[in-house]
Description:
alpha/beta, 9-stranded mixed sheet, 11 strands, globular, EC 3.1.1.14
Amino acid sequence: MATIEDSPTFFSAATPAAFEVGSLPTTEIPVEPLENDSAAPPKPVRITCPTVAGTYPVVLFFHGFYLRNYFYSDVLNHVASHGYILVAPQLCKLLPPGGQVEVDDAGSVINWASENLKAHLPTSVNANGKYTSLVGHSRGGKTAFAVALGHAATLDPSITFSALIGIDPVAGTNKFMRTDPHILTYKPESFDLDIPVAVVGTGLGPKWNNVMPPCAPTDLNHEEFYKECKATKAHFVAADYGHMDMLDDDLPGFVGFMAGCMCKNGQRKKSEMRSFVGGIVVAFLKYSLWGEKSEIRLIVKDPSVSPATIDPSPELEEASGIFV
């Protein structure tokens, strides 16, 4: 029986295993809300987890604006294969809710996961309650930050988080049209967070797509989020990719069609971007939860090991004062 309660096996620093699919087989489990069922989630969720018996940390993943949680299947399975349980709620239906509503809904899902996740996991697969992390893409990245900063009125105050990762987070369309709650202060290191934070950005996110405005506009994107974080913090920018390039290929339906054409997209293989995003998430979780520093430090010191070109140079500033 594989039990992941303490630090998992170390990998060679010469080959960052985080960028490769892990050794654990995974499964996807959709769970729908049901009236008069206290174990059902308040919102539809998609659980992606290992099928091998064990106890694994929980990662809440929040989708981007108007997107579907199953658009992220490849990335979520990548992370889960390294020994994590991903819980991805669907926070919108036809139209996205208001920003504060979305944050409060996220808090409700986190409460549900802390109490009822076990009932929906495969036999002998358990959640490690000591470790819960927040990850989000686009508007979902902003939602993850807002929850970590205490803006979810619904969240059980006894729940704590181990790490926070924003994947091309976006706080609105411009500085005068920001989504609620307004968490950006435009003051360096103003976020009141005491957990490790990683921010992933894209080089093409701030660029126009013909007549379509940027999906990750300047002053509201990864750069500002990173500036407002305190150490321990890390920053990685995939220079040749766009805001939606981490999503699966061949997305279904009208929403899938719009996700493929709204933003400026890169010309390289999207699979490389998915490996990059999944790898950064895995390496940073290993760093934050288990103290395994070798892979994340290697990526910072030698960005050429990444499947996506990282530019500008990646950063890792540790709370100890070490700047890698």
